[in-house]
Amino acid sequence: MDISISKKNENGEYKNLFFSLATQRSQITYLPTSWTVVHPIDENSPLKNYNPLELEKLQAEILILLSYHDDSFNDVLHQAHSYTFNDLKVNYRFKKAFHFNENGKMELDHSMVDNIEKE
């Protein structure tokens, strides 16, 4: 996962800067329920010196490329996504989209996959 930030250089011209964002998990073996990609903002993060308002002004854009091996077709699939800062919700989290039924089996509720709540 990468982020692009448009920043003015010493000549007053805007230039796109690209930074890699380390995620808590770089891969998963299977997708049993839902999965949230998390980038911790710590001392190693290129975002550590920016607040949400600054990122919006700098036209921050998160770029994601997912690769997946589909066992059914024995093929690797790729999906690219781009999110501008206006697409993001700051200080929100996803609601739990799964529960355990009476037999202890985990069930995913597809109607809850994109439900969020304020932290």
What does this entry show, briefly?
With 119 residues, the chain is mainly beta. The chain contains one helix and eight strands, in the order ββαββββββ.
Characteristics:
2 domains, mainly beta, 4-stranded antiparallel beta sheet, two-stranded antiparallel sheet, globular, Immunoglobulin-like, single chain, 119 residues, 39% strand
Give structural notes.
The protein has 119 residues and is mainly β. It has 2 domains: 2-88, Sandwich (Immunoglobulin-like); 89-119, no CATH class. Helix content is 5%, strand content 39%. It has 1 helix and 8 strands, in the order ββαββββββ. The chain has one helix at 52-57, and strands at 2-8, 14-20, 61-70, 75-84, 92-94, 98-100, 106-108, 116-118. It has a 4-stranded antiparallel β-sheet with strand order 2-1-3-4, with no helix packed on it. Strands 5-8 form a two-stranded antiparallel ribbon. It has a two-stranded antiparallel ribbon with strand order 6-7. β6 (98-100) and β7 (106-108) form a beta hairpin.
Low-confidence regions: none
Total count of strands = 8
Q: What is the number of helices?
A: 1
Topology order in helix (H) and strand (E) letters: EEHEEEEEE
- What count of structural domains? 2
The biggest sheet amounts to: 4 strands, antiparallel
Q: Could you name the CATH topology of the largest domain? A: Immunoglobulin-like
Q: Which percent band covers the strand fraction?
A: 35-45%
N→C terminal distance: 23 Å
Q: What is the CATH architecture term of the largest domain? A: Sandwich
Quaternary state, please?
Answer: single chain
Q: Please state the structural category.
A: mainly beta
- Helix content estimate: under 10%
Question: Strand arrangement, largest sheet?
Answer: 2-1-3-4
Shape annotation = globular
Q: Determine and state the CATH class of the largest domain.
A: Mainly Beta
Radius of gyration, whole Å: 18 Å
- Quote the average pLDDT: 86
**Fourth-tier CATH superfamily name of the largest domain:** G protein-activated inward rectifier potassium channel 1
